[in-house]
Amino acid sequence: FLHAVRVAARGDALLAPSITRKLIDRYVTQPPPTSGGTGKPLEDLTGREREAVVLVAQGLSNDEIAARMVISPLTAKTHVNRAMSKLRARDRAQLVVFAYESGLVTPHNP
After folding, report:
1. Is the model's pLDDT at 63 over the cut of 80?
2. Beta carbons of 69 and 48 less than 8 angstroms apart
3. pTM for this prediction
4. In 54-86, which positions are buried (b, 16+ CB within 10 angstroms) versus exposed (e)?
5. Rounded Cα–Cα distance for residues 92 and 2 (Å)
6. Please, what are the domains in the chain?
7. Taking the CA atoms of the chain, what radius of gyration do you get in angstroms?
């Protein structure tokens, strides 16, 4: 329980990476939506916010995103939160869905 509280306080996902991978695998094997995407333009995101969304879609935590982008964890969290706000995403899982539906991220076949 304490671990979950600490994870949530950092702004990281509570899902285990293995569960996130299963969710993504299941999502990408489904037929594409008939609406042709979310209708939310990528142009609303800055380049850094777009980069953060891609890294969220790869299952990275805020600390891992910060390391990849060479920024502080707080700045990484800010990029993620601003992207969520602009895209009206309730959580990181919705960011992942947006990233795939918009074509920002594509599935990799092993």
Report:
1. yes
2. yes
3. 0.66
4. bbbbbbbbbebbbeebebebebbbbbbebbbeb
5. 21
6. 2-30+37-101 (1.10.10.10)
7. 14
